[in-house]
Amino acid sequence: MSTPARRRLMRDFKRLQEDPPVGVSGAPSENNIMQWNAVIFGHACLYYNYFVFSLGTFKLVIEFSEEYPNKPPTVRFLSKMFHPNEKSVG
Known about the structure:
Layout: H1 4-18, E1 24-29, E2 32-41, E3 44-47, E4 50-54, E5 57-63, E6 74-77
Antiparallel strand pairs: 1-2, 2-5, 3-4, 5-6
């Protein structure tokens, strides 16, 4: 069944393939257009041509509802992220 949200997601995916943004990749799951898998590629930070750090690569899942695009999708990061104010336990 093709709903407005599903048609919109198909158009969004086609546009993403035709003009992909730098540092981001995403596509619908094999059998569910309402769930996408995406990756954000962090760039490396250079200082006077010396490698300082990399911002990492982050995998995420984006879940769309039938109310898309009027209701934003739910985004869940699968990759563990470092935050200086967060402890690994507790």
